[in-house]
Specification:
38% helix; alpha+beta; 5-stranded antiparallel beta sheet; 14 helices
């Protein structure tokens, strides 16, 4: 059927009268007429443009002499067949010398041929791009482990890839033209998909949601991302969904939650303060002992959460040491003092400081001077304290119970 954009005039006599010539000059198609000896008898102005030849150069000349490259193409074969059978023909053909695709309509008559044609190179280029994209999509979709589906506004499947068959146990072609309900799938599953599809068509925006399905091999969990597909007027005409099996991820999340529950139960049972921090240094967990010791509300954390109980003289050193370790990723060891503001007492969390604290921190409360850290014995005391600190106090760290 001729392209409706192009006016196709019925077959004309090869000797075109003046009024008919005026018509042929006004139509959007290029036109030429040939006699039974294949000579040009008429060409309109559009032919001059498409053939890149002046009509004066071609009138009375043999078409195959002037365009010899056409002899081995459909132009030659179909023109001869139309002339022999007196049957009209329509075809598309590429003409290399002009680097052009033509759509050609041939109308035979006893005294020759009337040929209407126009350039369809751009349409062919677009069609080739669309076909290439279609093949690429089909190749990706049909080999994807993810389920890929396309729905119309009535929730019918208008495309499905083979992965849906493996997931549901239903042959994937059985989905085409059917809704979830038509296929007898669970009502709750059908309702989720209907609701989400309606959102896509109503808002024109994508949605992401999760659902579960009792598959042949057990309960499976899925995450779907659905996007609208629009026509040239911007109307959503279909919804494309890519659905991924996240069952393994769900099981892993459950395992992590279980492990975290066990860790917290163990940490809360310990008499020591246990804490953890994120890679950026933000303290995100304290065990129960911390809240018992500090009286803080449960859930209070963050980089500054230690400051209220640190001895004022230790705050800057503590922060500098901590953030240096965060930046470098290297283990660190630090000694600091806690300050109990309610009892106005210094509380130490590090065994290495106990001797030094007992030696000097209580001098203000007594006149007795007992030297617990004499200069002559300091090396021995430090060595012994180092063994105790490393082998006893650091046990909690070596077991992985502290951040």
């Amino acid at each position: 059927m001729p392209d409706p954009v192009h006016a196709v005039v019925p077959p004309l006599p090869n000797t075109a009268p003046t009024d008919m010539a005026m018509v042929l000059e006004r139509i959007s198609d290029a036109f030429f007429a040939l006699d039974t000896e294949w000579h040009f008898t008429y060409l309109n102005s559009h032919s001059e443009v498409l053939l890149q030849r002046r009509r004066e150069e071609l009138l009375g000349k043999n078409v195959w002499d002037e365009f010899p490259e056409a002899v081995g193409l459909n132009f030659y074969t179909i023109y001869h067949h139309a002339m022999a059978t007196q049957q009209p023909a329509t075809f598309e053909e590429y003409y290399p010398p002009l680097d052009t695709w033509f759509e050609v309509h041939v109308y035979p008559a006893p005294d020759g041929l009337s040929v209407y044609y126009h350039d369809v190179s751009e349409q062919r280029r677009i069609a080739a791009i669309l076909e290439r994209e279609r093949v690429q999509f089909q190749t990706v979709a049909e080999n994807s482990p993810d389920i890929i589906t396309r729905f119309d506004r009535e929730h019918r499947h208008i495309y499905v890839n083979p992965a849906i068959g493996a997931a549901t146990g239903v042959p994937f072609r059985a989905f085409l033209g059917k809704t979830h309900r038509d296929l007898g799938l669970p009502d709750d599953l059908a309702m989720i998909w209907e609701e989400q599809t309606n959102v896509v068509f109503t808002t024109g925006h994508e949605v992401v949601f999760e659902c579960s399905f009792a598959a042949p091999d057990g309960m499976r969990f899925y995450q779907a991302r659905m996007v609208p597909e629009f026509d040239a007027n911007g109307t959503a005409i279909s919804a494309l969904a890519i659905t991924r099996d996240i069952t393994a991820l769900k099981h892993a999340e459950n395992a992590v939650r279980t492990q975290e529950t066990h860790f917290r139960a163990l940490a809360d049972a310990m008499p020591q303060i246990v804490w953890t921090a994120r890679p950026d240094g933000y303290i995100d967990y304290y065990n129960a002992r911390w809240y018992e010791f500090t009286g803080f509300l449960y859930g209070v954390g963050g980089d500054q959460s230690w400051e209220p109980i640190l001895h004022p003289d230790d705050v800057l050193h503590c922060y500098e040491t901590w953030y240096s370790a965060v930046r470098s990723g290297k283990p660190y060891q630090i000694e600091y003092r806690f300050y109990d503001r309610e009892t106005d007492r210094i509380v130490n969390n590090e065994s290495s400081e106990i001797i030094r604290m007992l030696d000097s921190e209580f001098d203000a409360f007594t006149d007795v001077r007992l030297d617990l850290y004499p200069d002559a014995l300091r090396d021995e005391i430090d060595e012994l304290e180092g063994e105790v600190y490393t082998n006893v106090n650091d046990g909690v760290y070596k077991c992985g119970f502290a951040g």
